[in-house]
Amino acid sequence: MRAVEKRGKALVTGASSGIGATYADRLAQRGHDLVLVARDKKRLSDLAAKLSAQYGVTVDVLKADLTLRDDVRLVEKRLREDEAIELLVNNAGIGPKGPLLTDDLDYLEAMIELNVVAVNRLAIAAAQTFAMRGKGAIINIASVVALVPERFNGTYNASKAFVLNLTQSINVEAADKGVRVQAVLPGLTRTEIFDRAGGSIDRLDPSMVMDVTDLVDAALAGFDQGELVTIPSLPDAADWHAFTKARMVLSPNLSHDRPAARYGVEQTAAAV
Fold first, then answer.
1. pLDDT band (50, 70, 90) for residue 271
2. Which is the most buried residue in 212, 216, 245, 251, by most CB within 10 A?
3. How many CB atoms are located within 10 Å of the residue 217 CB?
């Protein structure tokens, strides 16, 4: 067992495999006690036993299906009532089965429940709770497709754009209350999500697929550096800053009392 300095407790959703399980390992290595959340209790229990033995941390298991709103509320209750929790890793999510026009609507609605509704509720519950305590952090796992909606399934893209926007907005309200937030935007990552969606990661260009441990290590490095948005594949952070600056240039002209002259629309006469 490796001796580590104790830190606050972290709650990780989607922790039974992939990105979530890797976050659990890395956070345990850093000395965080853990609450692991997912549907598969056996996998969670096996991971909990391994991490506890390897790092000497306390690991609790909370079985929950976050497509079910009652289960989301159970996790929310734990977030609000366990005063030792100082970090939420909002990771649970699913990907599409195929193109939007051939995907199943019920599956897409389940995706929204998990990728949007559950993420939203847990992130806000954590932000409210941490703000009252004056400390805490939230890591929301989004995706690079939030920035390139033309390249992937529309519902999935939109769900990840929601996560990015939510994170940026929470930061505006909560940063001065001791709450840190980070949106992580992975590209293609070697996890089970492709198999679960009926595809195979082996069909993809390997030069575009990042190993999950590299992804999480880079994301945590970005967190340590205080990044609000972390894109592990992006070579030059200046590109993201330029994108943000270009977006903000639009801000003064997004709402006026009349249409832009380029539309040739005459101003409506003011009501008498």
1. very low
2. 216
3. 14
Active site residues: 156
Q: Rounded to whole angstroms, how far apart are CA atoms 260 and 257?
A: 9
Given a cut of 80, is residue 1 above it in pLDDT?
Answer: no
Q: Residue 51 maps to which CATH number?
A: 3.40.50.720
> How many angstroms separate the Cα of 91 from the Cα of each of 16, 99, 110?
11, 23, 16
Domain that holds residue 188: 7-263
Q: HSE, CB side, 13 Å, CA atoms: give it for residue 107.
A: 16
pLDDT band at 214 (very low <50, low <70, confident <90, very high): very high
In a domain, 180, yes or no: yes
Sheet holding 7-13, edge to edge: 59-63, 32-38, 7-13, 85-90, 136-141, 179-184, 229-230
Residue 103, number of CB atoms within 10 A of its CB: 18
Q: Which of 194, 187, 126 is nearest to 160 (CA)?
A: 187
